[in-house]
């Protein structure tokens, strides 16, 4: 540099060096005002390294807008599935025919896309310093930059979440923990094994099983016009007339002309329609597992948290596309998600995960549209998933479980049972699937096969609480009261999933009552605290929120004063027609066979049931039926009956409750002995009188004694609860 300065100072002819000096910042009087060549290179290196490390920092501290990065990647035709397959040639960004570090710089935004080289001017050539030490420094810097970019690229390509553990892909469907068996043994013949022709008798009516009828909220619900979708709990709004029921009663049950008793059959639902506020029971020691959990319990809990594996090897290569479609579904863009999954199925017909996503989208769309047809399509697609080759075990489980659930929702109980049988055949060691199969048998009234299933489960897992409560439930249905108690009690105490159900508190308490054990009310109290009952005394399971609740009512309180007056005014007419039937057509009075009697003789003759008139029965009592036609609150009560009831001496009816809080029950005395007959509702006792109406809410516990010397004949009229709206009376499912 000194020689350049001296030559300029002496005024000699300019040399090449002096030209460069002038160009880069020489000044008057020999003073340097710009940057030297080496200084330029130093700043160039500082800026380059700052750029690299800034890029590293951006990636490391997750400051990148990944949506923008993905958009850029799309512009460059950057396809992750291609990268995972090692096909990187298409990402050649600089035109040199292969993918290298320079191409990576372009993709990461560290370098502009290359353009055809332009001829360099002499001036630009002069700006490059020819010194060997400068070139070596530049090579070292390039190596460092290359290493940094390779590191960033490697991290970018391998920082995707584990393809095996797609939590979002599960579609919010919980999966139990499994030791996944190898599919290779049964995949070749899986399609043959899981063919599921829907049997013609899917809609077969469930036989009544006395008081122990098993009806779940999933039974024969569909997207009919009068029903709301049942995936979400409905909320009550009395002023708008919206229904607050959490579920519908099986339509199968509505068609059964059953032998109704004086106080009706209790139909056990899975949960109450009335979501009663539950008190805090977290510190309750009566129910739940012991404080010292075994290692096995902890292992089981850990297993249940295990994420299901839904991708086979091929699906891992299209994970990005699957994730994009699933993201649409999770955002509620159901139609777009369905189109995306349909496109994937068309493009990759052997992809189990794509087809499962299509089934989920159809399922979601069915709920949105309230379409039974779309739901059936989803059911078919779930079934298609398991017929594909190389389906992960967890995906088979999720598909078949959801298929069975949706079949039950549509009332396809037999088809659901076939699906559950497949699950048990494919995964024989999974007791949870056996438990579901037992429920499937109960839903079609096949208690015998259900009992065998739960006996098998308990032989494999003696402490399975779910199996215990259901086994106890079946024993009680067989009137094996004492035997049922330990199974119901231990099952509830286990705290296992599926055991905290109002039916099991109800039946355990009932069994204890029949054995004379005062512990019954402890379980009723606990059932109330856990939100299954409206109170210890009011234990109906099909309820509407917010209705006035009291055991005994007056005619004025009900608002049905005209009906009460008409009944009391015409009581002799009603009595005489009833007595004529007893004399001439005694066979029309059917004995109570619902397991509500401890002892005695009790029969009834039904005129209306579930809002439907029995035309043949009314031919025998035409005047009585004509009288009642004027009162739709009674004849239109689809949750009640109108009937004669005769009870002979020596009869005792166990304490019990009716199934719903949606009705009130009127008893008109027709033939009443002077003493020995009484009824208790909650904690208050009443006596019948001839020609007078008693009104009570039979969702409260009640009990009857007939200790007179002659028979007692009454006329029972059920009416809608007066606080139900017209909309609710039209749409509440029948009981």
Word description of this protein:
This protein has 735 residues and is an alpha+beta fold. Helix content is 46%, strand content 9%. The protein is built from 31 helices and 13 strands. The strands form two sheets. Strands 1, 2, 4, 5, 6, 8, 11 and 13 form an eight-stranded antiparallel sheet that branches. Strand 9 and strand 10 (684-686) form a beta hairpin. The protein is elongated, with a radius of gyration of 39 Å. Mean pLDDT is 75; it is low at 1-35, 75-90, 114-141, 148-213, 215-220 and 225-295.
Short description:
The protein is an alpha+beta fold and 735 residues long.
List the helices and strands and how they pair.
Elements: H1 2-9, H2 16-24, H3 37-60, H4 66-75, H5 80-84, H6 101-107, H7 122-127, H8 132-158, H9 190-193, H10 251-254, H11 295-304, H12 313-317, H13 319-330, H14 334-347, H15 352-369, H16 372-385, H17 393-409, H18 413-426, H19 431-443, H20 447-460, H21 465-477, H22 481-494, H23 502-514, H24 520-529, E1 552-553, H25 555-558, H26 561-569, H27 571-584, E2 590-591, E3 597-599, E4 602-609, E5 612-613, H28 615-620, H29 622-628, H30 632-635, E6 641-647, E7 651-656, E8 663-671, E9 677-681, E10 684-686, E11 693-696, E12 702-706, E13 712-720, H31 726-731
Mean pLDDT: 75
> What percent of residues are in strands?
5-15%
Rounded to an integer, what's the Rg over CA atoms? 39 Å
Q: Please provide the count of β strands.
A: 13
Low-confidence stretches: 1-35, 75-90, 114-141, 148-213, 215-220, 225-295
Q: Counting H and I runs of at least 4 residues, what is the number of helices?
A: 31
What gap, in angstroms, lies between the N and C termini? Answer: 105 Å
Dominant shape? elongated
Class by SSE composition? alpha+beta
Give the biggest beta sheet: 8 strands, antiparallel
Helix residue percentage = 40-55%
């Amino acid at each position: 540099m000194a020689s350049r300065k001296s030559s300029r100072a002496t005024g000699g002819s300019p040399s090449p060096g002096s030209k460069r000096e002038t160009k880069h910042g020489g000044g008057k009087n020999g003073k340097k005002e710009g940057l030297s060549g080496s200084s330029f290179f130093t700043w160039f290196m500082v800026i380059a390294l700052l750029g690299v490390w800034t890029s590293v920092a951006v990636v490391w501290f997750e400051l990148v807008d990944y949506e923008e990065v993905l958009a850029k990647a799309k512009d460059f035709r950057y396809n992750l599935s291609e990268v995972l397959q090692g096909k990187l040639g298409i990402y050649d960004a600089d035109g040199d025919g292969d993918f290298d570090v320079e191409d990576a710089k372009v993709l990461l935004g560290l370098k502009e896309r290359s353009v055809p080289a332009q001829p360099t001017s002499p001036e630009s050539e002069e700006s490059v310093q020819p010194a060997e030490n400068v070139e070596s420094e530049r090579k070292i810097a390039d190596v460092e930059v290359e290493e940094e970019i390779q590191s960033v690229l490697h991290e970018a390509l391998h920082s995707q979440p584990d393809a095996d553990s797609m939590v979002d892909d599960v579609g919010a469907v919980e999966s139990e923990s499994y030791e996944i068996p190898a599919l290779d043994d049964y995949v070749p013949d899986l399609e043959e094994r899981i063919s599921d022709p829907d049997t013609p008798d899917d809609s077969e009516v469930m036989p009544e099983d006395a008081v122990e009828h098993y009806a779940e909220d999933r039974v024969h619900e569909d997207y009919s016009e009068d029903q709301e979708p049942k995936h979400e709990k409905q909320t009550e709004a009395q002023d708008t007339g919206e229904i607050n029921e959490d579920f519908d009663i099986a339509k199968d049950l509505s068609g059964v002309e059953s032998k109704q008793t004086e106080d009706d059959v209790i139909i056990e639902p899975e949960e109450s329609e009335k979501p009663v506020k539950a008190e805090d029971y977290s510190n309750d020691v009566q129910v739940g597992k012991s404080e010292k959990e075994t290692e096995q319990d902890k292992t089981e809990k850990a297993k249940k948290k295990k994420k299901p594996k839904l991708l086979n090897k091929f699906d891992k290569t299209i994970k990005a596309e699957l994730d994009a479609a699933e993201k649409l579904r999770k955002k509620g863009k159901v139609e777009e998600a369905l189109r995306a999954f349909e496109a994937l199925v068309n493009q990759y017909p052997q992809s189990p995960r794509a087809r499962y996503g299509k089934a989920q989208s159809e399922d979601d769309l069915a709920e949105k549209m309230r379409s039974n047809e779309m739901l059936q399509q989803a059911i078919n697609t779930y079934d298609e998933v398991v017929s594909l080759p190389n389906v992960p075990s967890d995906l088979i489980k999720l598909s078949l479980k959801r298929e069975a659930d949706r079949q039950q929702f549509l009332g396809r109980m037999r088809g659901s049972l076939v699906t559950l049988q497949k699950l048990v055949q494919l995964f024989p060691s999974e007791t949870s699937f056996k438990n579901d199969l037992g429920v499937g048998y109960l839903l079609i009234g096949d208690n015998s096969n259900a009992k065998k299933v739960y006996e098998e489960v308990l032989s494999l897992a003696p402490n399975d609480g779910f199996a215990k409560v259901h086994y106890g439930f079946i024993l009680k249905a067989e009137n094996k009261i004492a035997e049922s108690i330990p199974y119901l009690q231990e099952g509830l105490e286990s705290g296992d999933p599926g055991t905290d159900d109002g039916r099991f508190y109800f039946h355990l308490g009932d069994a204890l009552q029949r054995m004379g054990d005062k512990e019954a009310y402890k379980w009723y109290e606990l059932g109330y605290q856990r939100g299954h009952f409206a109170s210890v005394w009011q234990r109906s399971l099909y309820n509407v929120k917010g209705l006035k609740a009291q055991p005994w009512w007056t005619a004025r309180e009900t608002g049905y004063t005209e009906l009460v007056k008409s009944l009391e005014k015409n009581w002799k007419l009603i009595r005489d027609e009833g007595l004529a039937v007893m004399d001439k057509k005694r066979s029309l009075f059917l004995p109570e066979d619902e397991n509500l009697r401890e002892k005695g003789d009790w029969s009834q003759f039904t005129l209306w049931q579930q809002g439907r008139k029995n035309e043949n029965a009314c031919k025998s009592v035409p005047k009585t039926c004509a009288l009642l036609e004027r009162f739709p609150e009674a004849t239109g009560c689809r949750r009640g009956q109108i009937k004669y009831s005769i009870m002979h001496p020596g009869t005792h009816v166990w304490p019990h409750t009716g199934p719903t809080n949606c009705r009130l029950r009127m008893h008109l005395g027709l033939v009443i002995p002077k003493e020995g007959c009484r009824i208790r509702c909650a904690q208050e006792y009443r006596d019948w009188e001839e020609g007078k109406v008693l009104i009570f809410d039979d969702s409260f516990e009640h009990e009857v004694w007939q200790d007179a010397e002659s028979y007692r004949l009454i006329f029972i009229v059920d009416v809608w609860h007066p606080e139900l709206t017209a909309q609710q009376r039209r749409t509440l499912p029948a009981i």
